[in-house]
Each structure stands twice: as structure tokens, then as C-alpha cells.
Amino acid sequence: MSQAQRRIRESAAVAPGEHAPTLPDPDKLAHARASLPDTTRTDYLCGRGPEATLDHLLDDIVPGLNGQNRSGRYWGFVTGSTLPIAEAADNIVSAYDQNVQVHLPSQTIATEVEDAALTMLLRLLRLGEPEQWEGRTFTTGATGSNILGLACGREAVITARVTNGSESVGELGLLRACVKAGIEEIQVLTSMGHSSLSKAASVVGLGRASVKLLPFSDAEPWCLDIDAVERELQRENVASIIAISAGEVNTGRFATAGLEDMKRLRRLADQYRAWIHVDGAFGVFARVLPEKEEYAPLLAATAGLELCDSLTIDGHKFLNVPYDNGIFFTRKASTLNDVFKNPNAAYLSSGAASTIQSPLNIGLENSRRFRALPVYAVLMSEGKQGMSRMMEKMVLTARAVARAIRSCGDEYVLLPDDESTASDENVHMVVLFRARDDGLNSVLVQRINEGNEWYVSGSSWDGKPAVRVAVSSWRADAEDAFDVVKKSLGAIARAYKESQE
Ligand SMILES: *Cc1c(COP(=O)(O)O)cnc(C)c1O
């Protein structure tokens, strides 16, 4: 097995300047599928031993995997990829298999590394001092983190309305707490909130129907209509959580325009006892871009996010650590504790008075992976400057893709089709576009992905199919992206025209 690491690395290696295919060869995918054990055979579960199994994994399964980490042009979803130092750290995580659930400072450094990583992130993202974010933890992703956010919001907006103020929803349960507080409805106010927000609303008992979209306009549906928020907050016997999309996953745009919007929302939330949750899964990283004019709109749009009550961040996207990795921040450790306390398990107590809480009392999981280590490693390795450069590279690559699309002439159109996409400055890391010809547009995603040079997601805009490019890999390369996209889109349009003649 000592050879295993070397063999894995060799199989996953990509030569400098090269791009791995975005999708597996269809034959290899079929072969991988056929190699899975046949449940009807009597020797179905006979052990093959580690050596034969490693051969099976590398020879049969691996060729059936996609290139999302290895390509640099896998621009589907928002997948991130894995920096080599993060992969190394993740191997240490497996090799040492720590269970990071109880803070045991005399027995392992793991919880302190986790806290150091969280504190470094606060500094990197200019969110304020660690004492202002006592509630902080790692979880599985932005979905998990949004669940934490809505759970904390639910806890806070209800207890604020219970007369003696000391009873927690975690203790009473949602129904009894709402009756005591005279609450008839809890609503989640947002604009183009990520789909996982509705999932989170369901999980924490608010219901998917509690998510209310308050778009500023048809032209800018990602923008939150703050006047509408104010009206909603005034409803009698209704408690509200304001969920800010920073940014929105189809367009990369932001729900708030900057500091003034956030200040106004903060005032409103305080006045009406509402909670502000920011879903900054990928968008919050725009705050690490260098202070250059070309990034001014992105820096402005992400200003003021630090005024929220809770914040979701994804590690496995822009931070380029392996799946799965999510981060959550909130103001008070006690809010997390009211919801996630794992009571009456004396054998799990750390017995230590410390600012670091046992993770099992402040998050969803009890047993947990040492997810913090790859984040710690990336931040140690790259520092502020390295992170800033990496973000810049991703934004420049998305802008190169947008320019390539514009340079194709009339065939394709950037979305939204208005002056905001006519220049680069609003392009963050997502590029949305479509073909003008409906016929070509209906097969565009398929044609691009078949080419196996770049990979995109299908989306929709204004009720019509659209193509979404999301750049989130450290391998992003603006010049290469421009050339590949321009050439590929030109060829696809020509081939389509010929097929119509
Ligand atoms: C990706 C994403 C999510 C969901 O995150 P997972 O890490 O897939 O759980 C939530 N919100 C936003 C804005 C996202 O981009």
C-alpha cells in the first residue's frame, strides 16, 4: 500500500500548461459502470484484497470520473477545485483520522487548528475581530451552513418575542415557542436566494413556503427590494429572517449594492427584531480582490456584509479545498449553543474552560472530519496576497470568457442583455449567455460539453435556456480561456448553420 499514494498522484497528474478533459470518455464511463459488482453473483461480496482493489479503483473507476479538479475549464456549477497543498493536508486528515467533536486541548491540537483557520478567514475577509464572531464552526458545505443560519435566526427572532426572554426554541420546540411568543408566521425574505435556502427552511421547520422573494425589479431580480423588506417587517405577529444572496448563483451579482444598503437593513433588523443571514458561499471572496479600479464594483457590492448576524461560506468552492467543506459564523456562541447543545453526555465534556467550544455543542454533527486542516493549509500557504491573486485570476478568466463571447459578433448574447454586461466591470466569476438563434440555443450546452474542452451548466434566464460559466479553479487561465471559448463557439455556430442548410 505504500505505493498507493504515488500511483494516485501519477494518475491524477496534469502536466503544466495542459488541461485534462472535462468529461470522461463515454466508453470508459461504460466500462467503469460494467466493472461495478454484479449483485446477482454468489461471490458478490468476496473480498478481493487491497491490491486488486486499488487496481480496480485506478484502472476501472477513475477513468469514469469527470475532470472537475484536473481541467481548469470545468466551469459547471460552482465546483472549485483542489490546490495541491489542500490535497496534501487532506491526505493528512485521512492518515490521522482525528474525530474533531470535543475540545480536548491536552490531547490534540485539532480544535485549536480549526479555530486558527476560522480566525484567519475572518481576517482574510475583513469581517472584524474574532471576539465579534464568537459563534464559528466548520460544517459540510453552504447548505449545512444555511441550515445553521436559519436555525440561529429562528432561535433569535422567536426568543426575542418570548416575554421572559430566557427560554430557547431549542428547549421548547418551535410550536410551543411560537405560541408563547404570539408568532403566527416566520418568513425568510430574500431575492433569488439559493435553492438550498428553501431546503434549509424546510429542515428547520419554517417551511419552503416561508421563503419570500422580494426582487428589486424584473431587470435586476437578484437585488433585494429594501422598501419591500421594510413593509414585510411591519406585519403583525410575523417574525422575519432576511437572507441576503451574496452572490446570486446564476449571475454572480449581489443582493445589496453596498455599505448603505447593509446599514439600512441593519437598522431595520434591529428595529423589528429580525435576523440578517448572508449566504456568501462564493461571493464573499470578492472582498479579497485587490483595490484596483476594475474591481471597484465588486468590492463596493460586498461592502457592509460584515453587518450581518450570521454568514455562510463555502470552502470547497473559491478556497479550493476538497469536498466537503463549509463554514459558518455568527455573533454569539450562545445562539449556536441554544440550538445545537448535545446535552447530558458528561463523557463528552472537555472539562476545560476555554473560548473554544466543543464542536458537538455548536453544530449539526457530533463526530466530524478534521475539515479545517486543508483550509488552514491553504491560508498558511497562500496568505492574503496569494488568495487575492487567485481570486483575481478567476475574475479575469470570467471576464476573458465574456469578451470571447462578445467577440463572436451577433451569434451570442451575454445575459442579462443590457448595458450591465456590455463592459467587464460587473463580471464577477459567473458568465451567463445564450445563442440568439433558438434552435442553436436549445442544443448549445450539449454541443459545448461534447467538445470536451470546456464544461458549462445549463440554466435559464427570462424563461429561455441559457448557458452558465462559473470559474472557480486555481487553474484558471484567462488567455487560454479566451482562445478556447472564441474558437469553440465560432465552430459550433458554423456547424449549426451548415446543418440547417
Ligand atoms: C453552492 C451554493 C450553496 C450550496 O452549497 P453546497 O456547498 O453545495 O451545500 C448555497 N448558496 C450559494 C450561494 C451557493 O453558491
UniProtKB/TrEMBL annotation:
<keyword id="KW-0456">Lyase</keyword>
<dbReference type="GO" id="GO:0016831">
    <property type="term" value="F:carboxy-lyase activity"/>
</dbReference>
<feature type="modified residue" description="N6-(pyridoxal phosphate)lysine">
    <location>
        <position position="317"/>
    </location>
</feature>
<dbReference type="GO" id="GO:0030170">
    <property type="term" value="F:pyridoxal phosphate binding"/>
</dbReference>
<dbReference type="InterPro" id="IPR010977">
    <property type="entry name" value="Aromatic_deC"/>
</dbReference>
<dbReference type="GO" id="GO:0005737">
    <property type="term" value="C:cytoplasm"/>
</dbReference>
<dbReference type="InterPro" id="IPR015424">
    <property type="entry name" value="PyrdxlP-dep_Trfase"/>
</dbReference>
<protein>
    <recommendedName>
        <fullName>L-2,4-diaminobutyrate decarboxylase</fullName>
    </recommendedName>
</protein>
<dbReference type="InterPro" id="IPR002129">
    <property type="entry name" value="PyrdxlP-dep_de-COase"/>
</dbReference>
<comment type="similarity">
    <text>Belongs to the group II decarboxylase family.</text>
</comment>
<dbReference type="GO" id="GO:0019752">
    <property type="term" value="P:carboxylic acid metabolic process"/>
</dbReference>
<dbReference type="Pfam" id="PF00282">
    <property type="entry name" value="Pyridoxal_deC"/>
</dbReference>
<dbReference type="InterPro" id="IPR015421">
    <property type="entry name" value="PyrdxlP-dep_Trfase_major"/>
</dbReference>
<keyword id="KW-0663">Pyridoxal phosphate</keyword>
<dbReference type="InterPro" id="IPR015422">
    <property type="entry name" value="PyrdxlP-dep_Trfase_small"/>
</dbReference>
<feature type="region of interest" description="Disordered">
    <location>
        <begin position="1"/>
        <end position="30"/>
    </location>
</feature>
